[in-house]
Specification:
Length: 82
C-alpha cells in the first residue's frame, strides 16, 4: 500500500480590513517535508504577501509554498474572502 502524502491547505479564518487588505489564516500539510503547518497570508489588492510564501523566509518546501499560493489565489479570485 502506498502511504505517500499530498500537500493540503485549509482556510481557518480571514478578516478584511480597510485599504483593500485581507488577512487569511491557514493550516495544512507540507508533503515535501512531511510536516503540518500554520500561518497567515496578507492580500494587498490581489497580491499575496507573508513569510509563509516568501522563498527565503518560508519553512515550507518550494512545491508546498507554490501550492498554497495557487490555492489562495484561486479562492481570492473566486471571491471566497469577501
Amino acid at each position: 500500500m502506498n502511504d505517500k502524502h499530498i500537500h493540503d491547505v485549509t482556510i481557518i479564518d480571514f478578516m478584511k480590513t480597510g485599504h483593500n487588505t485581507c488577512f487569511v489564516k491557514v493550516s495544512g500539510f507540507d508533503a515535501g517535508i512531511e510536516k503540518k503547518f500554520e500561518g497567515e497570508v496578507k492580500f494587498v489588492g490581489d497580491v499575496p504577501y507573508g513569510d509563509l510564501l516568501h522563498p527565503q523566509r518560508s519553512h515550507l518546501s518550494g512545491s508546498c509554498r507554490e501550492f498554497v499560493r495557487s490555492v489562495l489565489m484561486h479562492k481570492y479570485h473566486q471571491g471566497k474572502f469577501e
